[in-house]
Amino acid sequence: MEFRSVFLRRAVVLLLFVGVPGGATAGGGPASVDAAAYLARGEYARAARAFAQAIDRGDRSASVYAGLGRAYLKLGDNQHATDMELLEKGAAALRTAEELDPSRAETHYDLGLTLLALGDRPGAAGEIEHLKQLDPGLTATLTRALEGHRPLPSYRLVGESGRPEKNGTPVIVEGNTVLVPVTLSLGSRSVQARLILDTGASMTTITPQVAAQLDINLNQAVSGAVQVVGGGFVEARGVRLDQISVGPHARTKMNVAVIGNGNPRVPYDGLLGMDFLRGLHYHVDFRNRVINWTP
Questions:
Q1: Of the residues 54, 119, 187, 259, which has the fewest C-beta atoms closer than 10 A?
Q2: Whole-structure pTM value
């Protein structure tokens, strides 16, 4: 009964950049309005998709390019990953926004942060010079960021062979999707699976195929529903695994949801959610395709 109550209270939000729906809201507002709302709520993947759609539909305003650049900045440089490709796209969008409206202080600030994340200190310093004429507060903040910036260890090449560092775990990168090798254990059975690293998922999930390999009888599992992007719910089954292991880390007696692969374009066996990742310190090195774990 304890497991049933826990599972039915949990909800998984499947927020994958490769499969996020875009377009107008039910109210019929333009994509740029939707995008600004997503950005304000911190839904950066949805914001980037909506801003890009607004541009495709002819909205070439400075605010739209600036919003797209900020969304890419937030996606490309955070506590979990540094994606140089997304940062470069963000820098391009922000430069376009600057050309359209050089007086927007926030655009210079975001571009300065983006260039800093890309390792372009002179470029970031140049944005500080522009800001001095526009916003003393943002000038001071960006100056402090430049002075305190230190390249993260994951920026270093891991060697000519591409081998990971001591506390590194090799991963598969498909676009902006990171597939992590995971060992799932139940009783005497262990299965090697590829789970998507998804910080937007509150709960780890596995597919019915993986459940079958673990000899799980889904007809006897707890039934429930999990919430997906857009507010809808899909049927799921809840099971408890003895252990989930990733690299140097393992968690025991974890509840997981069993649901199908919602995006057949990307072959994966489930999602590695925040119930496993919470409290761990790591950084995804997209260049060398490795997760570096830190104490």
A1: 187
A2: 0.55
